[in-house]
Design goal:
Distance between the termini: 62 Å
CATH class: Mainly Beta
Number of helices: 2
Shape: globular
Number of strands: 14
Strand content: over 45%
Structural class: mainly beta
Helix content: under 10%
Number of domains: 1
Length: 182
């Protein structure tokens, strides 16, 4: 009887996937995408994290633009109106798990909160998208505080019309150890 090896039948190597990929297979990886065309002013979003001390949102964003714009992320924003809830999708299309982290567009902000990230995208002169952020968790991941509102402000440069592609990716992790904020 032949011995069976897990993984590749030729080399017997064990296949591995990174943790983010694992979360997709598990059905706990979510995303929101939006293409903004001919934007000339601002686009605002808020991210509302779960009100559970041991559930953390591991968040990565990518913003691409074909013209000059500025991206700011604030933590601890205050809103008088959440705005319109955005449609969040599960990356595993065979799974109906839903995210406890919610995204809203067009919120009414009463206090920005603390600026935690800012990037300026410039025009490269040939119409190719410049971008900031990325999909690699090691380089761009933010672990968001639970029960917190994050405010994302994207502003087109004065007198400039730009096409912007916004991508938010995250998974939610239940942690056995968490840090209590006093």
């Amino acid at each position: 009887m032949a011995t069976r090896y897990p993984g590749d039948s030729m080399t017997h190597a064990s296949p591995t996937i990174d943790y983010w990929h694992h979360k997709i297979h598990e059905g706990n990886f979510f995303y929101y995408n939006e293409l903004l065309t001919a934007m000339t002013t601002t686009k605002e979003y808020t991210i509302h994290t779960a009100n559970t001390p041991n559930k953390w949102t591991h968040f990565v964003y990518l913003v691409g633009s074909n013209a000059e714009c500025n991206i700011k992320i604030y933590e601890g924003a205050t809103v008088s109106s959440a705005g319109e809830q955005c449609t969040v999708l599960n990356r595993n299309r065979n799974c109906d798990n839903v995210s406890d982290t919610l995204i809203y567009g067009a919120p009414v902000i009463t206090a920005n909160g603390t600026l935690i990230d800012e990037h300026q995208l410039g025009n490269d002169g040939v119409g190719i998208f410049n971008d900031v952020g990325g999909s690699s968790s090691e380089d761009h991941e933010l672990i968001l505080k639970y029960n917190t509102i994050y405010y994302i402000l994207i502003t087109a440069a004065a007198q400039v019309s730009c096409d912007i592609n916004v991508k938010f990716n995250w998974y939610e992790q239940e942690n056995s150890v968490y840090y209590e904020n006093d």
